[in-house]
Design brief:
Length: 419
């Protein structure tokens, strides 16, 4: 009995020393609940406490920041959320849908003036409602999604991309065969620099090469240098994922797991428990990406907002986009049900703008716009289940670190599928 007690105590101490502290700093961070006026609402819970795959449909808000130090309105240290994606999952049918809200879409932010979607996270961070800035930031982002689209959010996950760099560095870099020469004259130069709003000219040579964490991030992040557009970017992301997967399956990974866990501290936060993350990661391995419905609220679902210039009186492009609810609502309700709705800031400006012919043509040629038809998608996934494609082996992940890495990749690469 004494030996058993000592052994159990030793294992517990070892786990806490290597994983427990890091995991507790990453998981279980309940989002602050805000009402429609941007005030803390203690009467409501922004998260669910049940089994994440118990059968109830769940909605998860994925939030990603390009740089943790990017502020808003000159306030440093209050990160924006450039990635705002709602993942909806029906565990009973294996239906998965993804709603991507553009960072530059002007929306109603509870308790604040209308602003870009990425401001919601920053305003919440600055609100000081609680001692946890990220819980406040996630809470206001959740409230903003609910205010504009009436989509209830059960869980959230936030990722700072500096964490991706650290993980790649811990893995010793990755070997990637760059598809073709890539030149991006306006690549955001916001890593390890004082000017976090600056740009630089990025050049990536073609062919096999060993990439550091920063180089790997540049390779998957650049959007202006691939003739294949978003499809080419997806291929590049898959290359890096495959290379990193090979590193994580090596015998050396077990020894590095504590280091990977520490790499994620400060760069990954979620209100899910580690057991929930493990279940989600295993669920994601069973998904056929061809059956994931995607709805991206870029044209023709939105368009540029022009407002009169105070000095000249002429309409000037603000750089923001506004939602066209007549276009959004049918597909939104297919994805989330009849309770989903849409509010547009156009009502504030008396602007009856409609999608231009150019916007409509762009949407037709954009493969990112996937029909959000729930019945068809459900039938496809049910066929996939019956064919045995869902029998992918589950990940043996007793400490949850690999699943946390998968969660980080989901946000970084804006895809539910992990390997």
């Amino acid at each position: 009995m004494t030996v058993l007690i000592i052994s159990t105590g030793g294992l517990y101490w070892w786990y806490q020393a290597n994983f427990g502290s890091a995991v507790s700093q990453i998981t279980g961070h309940k989002a602050t609940s805000f009402n429609s006026k941007g005030k803390e609402d203690s009467s409501q819970s922004a998260t669910s406490n049940g089994d994440i795959l118990s059968g109830k449909r769940i909605n998860i808000l994925l939030l990603g920041s390009d740089n943790d130090g990017k502020g808003n309105n000159g306030v440093n240290g209050s990160p924006l959320a450039q990635t705002d994606i709602v993942v909806t999952i029906d565990p009973s049918t294996h239906y998965v849908g993804m709603l991507s809200i553009p960072r530059d879409m002007r929306v109603f932010i509870p308790g604040n003036s209308p602003g870009k979607m990425d401001y919601a996270f920053s305003y919440g961070y600055q609100s000081n409602v609680s001692k946890d800035h990220y819980a406040d930031a996630a809470g206001l982002a959740i409230a903003t999604v609910q205010e504009n689209f009436n989509i209830p959010i059960d869980y959230y996950a936030w990722v700072g991309l500096d964490g991706f760099i650290k993980v790649i560095e811990t893995a010793g870099g990755v070997d990637v065969d760059a598809l073709h020469p890539m030149v991006d004259d306006v690549y955001p130069n916001d890593i390890s620099t004082k000017d976090i709003y600056g740009f630089k000219r990025l050049y990536i040579a073609p062919g096999p090469q060993h990439m550091s964490g920063v180089q790997a991030l540049e390779y998957v992040r650049t959007r202006h240098s691939d003739l294949g557009g978003d499809f080419g970017r997806s291929v590049r992301q898959q290359q890096v994922l495959t290379a990193l997967k090979g590193k994580l399956q090596s015998t050396d990974t077990v020894n590095k797991l504590p280091e990977y866990a520490k790499d994620l501290v400060g760069y990954l936060k979620t209100d899910m428990q580690v057991t929930d993350v493990i279940k989600m990661a295993n669920f994601a391995r069973n998904i056929n990406t061809a059956n994931i419905n995607k709805l991206i609220l870029s044209p023709p679902y939105s368009g540029p907002l022009s407002l009169p210039d105070p000095k000249t009186g002429k309409n000037t492009n603000t750089g923001d986009f506004v939602p066209y609810c007549s276009k959004i609502l049918p597909d939104l309700q297919k994805m989330f049900g009849d309770t989903a709705s849409c509010k547009s800031v156009l009502s504030l400006y008396g602007n009856a703008a409609t999608p231009s012919q150019q916007d409509t043509q762009l949407a037709q040629n954009n493969p990112s716009h996937v029909n959000a038809d729930v019945p068809n998608a459900t039938a496809s996934t049910q066929q996939m289940v019956s064919s045995g494609a869902m029998s992918v082996p589950q990940l043996n992940d007793p400490f949850g670190v690999r699943s946390l890495l998968d969660l980080m990749m989901m946000v970084t690469f804006e895809t539910v599928k992990v390997e």
